[in-house]
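REQUEST ID: PR-0412
SUBMITTED BY: lab tech R.K.
PRIORITY: routine
TASK: structure prediction, single protein chain
INPUT:
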Amino acid sequence: MVGCEQSPQTPTAPRETYPAVIRDSPESRGKAEREWRRMLNAYGVAQTPPDLYPFTHTPRSLLGVSGGIQILAGAPEPGSETIAVREAVKIFIDRWRDLIGADPATISLAAADESGTVKRFTYKQVNYPFPIAASFGEMSIVMSADGRLMQLDSRFIPTVELPLRPVVERSDAAQRVVGRTFTYGDIAGRPQTMRIGGLNEIAVKRLVIVPVEKGDSIEVHLGWEIVAGSSMTWTIYLDAINGEDLKVVQNFNT
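STATUS: complete
OUTPUT:
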């Protein structure tokens, strides 16, 4: 499935409402739980409590669902297994869009590993004007060869209003990283530090949407994705409106 909005419309938000906030809600959770029960009933699966993400209330796993969910009806013709499984996934996403948290027209198949008996599909949310970072905006689906849904993990978020243009320009974002010091552990677990000495060690990649969990809500920011370092690197998410640090990710293992 490759449905995608070519020109997503996200109005510019007033500055006083920034960042946008997705709040937890009993009503939202109740709706997700009802959809979960409806889904299990539809496929003749014994009822089990849903494993949902906080705030978005999308499925985090199929915890408690023994043996998966048979979503492919009947055995496909020999040689057509791949197409049949993909079509079954497409129908499932369309049918349970309220539970998954996304209209099929606003997601895109980003990766598919169908080399083994287990099929893995990764979908990206594409109804924002910029890519969604920080592990949000993505859904993974794992299927067995006989058409059973074995895993479902949806990190899609609702669409909210955000500014379309940064206040902190690209060059300013890079300058804010110069002189920063990062701490990491070496192979023996001893703390080490590395300082960013100049602009030659900084690459401001792109503007992204950065959801950040805070308290009982998710704040949604417009941010710069910045890679800093040389032999060892960190990815920094810097707020493109007010310049605040949003998240830092170490890009190497020790």
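NOTES: Residues 170-250 form one domain.
REVIEWED BY: pending
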